[in-house]
Amino acid sequence: ATCRHGCKYGECMGPNKCKCFPGFTGKTCNQDLNECGLKPRPCEHRCMNTHGSYKCYCLNGYMLMPDGTCASSSTCAMVNCQYGCEEVKGEVQCLCPSGGLQLGPNGRTCIDIDECSTGKALCSYNRRCVNTFGSYYCKCHLGYELKYISGHYDCVDVNECVTNTHSCNLHAECLNTEGSFRCRCKQGYRGTGFDCA
């Protein structure tokens, strides 16, 4: 089986036919499936979509059960957690719906962990980290774009001279470089390449 554009989060099952891993969708399985928008809803109260999955959490005063339902809890109501709570050995602990969130100093609200600045994020050498609330993702560096080449996705140089996304002067020629471009004034003109006279 050959899939010309590949299957990013799935496997090739037939000519250009992908079978996506759970949590992903699209012709090439390159899109995250928003499980929170599915019918029936996977969570009883609130749902947070994550990359390839989702997390359930409960309204204040309720406790998250292992099956994703929310049970009324007077202890949770007293603690006043932002995202519901759980009881561990008789002790009430507030929950955060994602590993990219941590309990704040008050022990009730969740604050974001910036994985990009703490070094927790794992991005390949040619990608940069972008922090999001509760998580992060890896994006190609500026001047590069994500393309499917020889069996996998990679960040490849954008040729600004060909795509016409350069800002060279009308009287200058565009020279592509890795991740960027240069401008050089044509013969008979002088300047930076952005300004030629």
From TrEMBL:
Compartments (UniProt record): Secreted, Extracellular space, Extracellular matrix
Key word Glycosyltransferase present: no
Molecular function as annotated in GO: calcium ion binding
GO biological process: cell adhesion; cell differentiation
Sequence intervals crossing the membrane: none
Gene3D superfamilies linked: Laminin
Classification via SMART domains: EGF (SM00181), EGF_CA (SM00179)
Keywords of the record: Calcium, Cell adhesion, Developmental protein, Differentiation, Disulfide bond, EGF-like domain, Extracellular matrix, Repeat, Secreted, Signal
EGF-like domain mapped to chain residues: 32-71, 112-150, 157-195
Main location: secreted
Highest rank taxon of the organism: Eukaryota
InterPro entries per UniProt: EGF (IPR000742), EGF-like_Ca-bd_dom (IPR001881), EGF-type_Asp/Asn_hydroxyl_site (IPR000152), EGF_Ca-bd_CS (IPR018097), Growth_fac_rcpt_cys_sf (IPR009030), Nephronectin_domain (IPR052235), NOTCH1_EGF-like (IPR049883)
Recorded family membership: Belongs to the nephronectin family.
PANTHER family, per the entry: EPIDERMAL GROWTH FACTOR-LIKE PROTEIN 6, PA14 DOMAIN-CONTAINING PROTEIN
Protein known as: EGFL6 protein
